[in-house]
Design brief:
The structure is a single chain. Strands 2-1-3-4-5 form a five-stranded mixed beta sheet. Helix 3 links the parallel strand 3 and strand 4. The protein contains four helices and five strands; from the N terminus they run H-E-E-H-E-H-E-E-H. It is of the alpha/beta class and 165 residues long. The longest helix has 19 residues. The model has no long low-confidence stretch (mean pLDDT 94).
Length: 165
């Protein structure tokens, strides 16, 4: 460990609580017609950033839930680096978001549902374990996975039903 760095103490006792906050944000996005993914960034036991998917309404392809939560947190703490923080996201991050997580120095990622097509943490690669990265991110999947998967399934089922009318 480099001098001046404190070891990350992992407290899993509130993981489900923070994931429920992310789920509530995902529901807000769904209400706007966005794919329901939500994220919260926590530092020192407090939520410092919140976000949900809004690439459609924001005409911004980078406006994923993780991106929005990290932007919100960076603004709140006036720092582009977020050491010691944990990101809770309802869906396994994609490659764009995983890169952002590394660059912003998020310490830990907790996600709900797997993303078999584009998830880069576990499903399509193990991005955070790559030796070329200059920052190590701890990660854990499957927290409230059933609920996180259900909100996505319900959203796409409703979307398909509208298309067949």
């Amino acid at each position: 460990m480099r001098q001046g760095r404190q070891p990350l103490i992992i407290d899993r006792s509130r993981d489900q609580d923070f994931m429920r906050e992310a789920l509530a944000l995902a529901a807000q996005g769904a209400a706007l017609g966005e794919v329901p993914v939500g994220a919260v960034l926590v530092q020192g036991g407090e939520v410092i950033g919140r976000g949900f998917n809004c690439p459609i309404s924001g005409s911004d392809p980078s406006a994923h839930a993780e991106m929005m939560a990290i932007r919100d947190a960076a603004t709140a703490v006036s720092n582009y680096r977020l050491p010691g923080s944990t990101l809770y996201v309802t869906l396994e991050p994609c490659s764009m978001c995983a890169g952002l997580i590394v660059h912003s120095r998020v310490a830990r990622v907790v996600y709900g549902a797997l993303e078999p097509k584009a998830g880069i943490v576990q499903s399509q690669g193990q991005f955070f374990t790559q030796s070329f990265l200059n920052h190590r991110v701890l990660f854990e999947g499957g927290v409230l996975a059933e609920e996180c998967g259900a909100i996505l399934s319900e959203f796409f089922k409703a979307r398909r039903a509208k298309q067949t009318l």
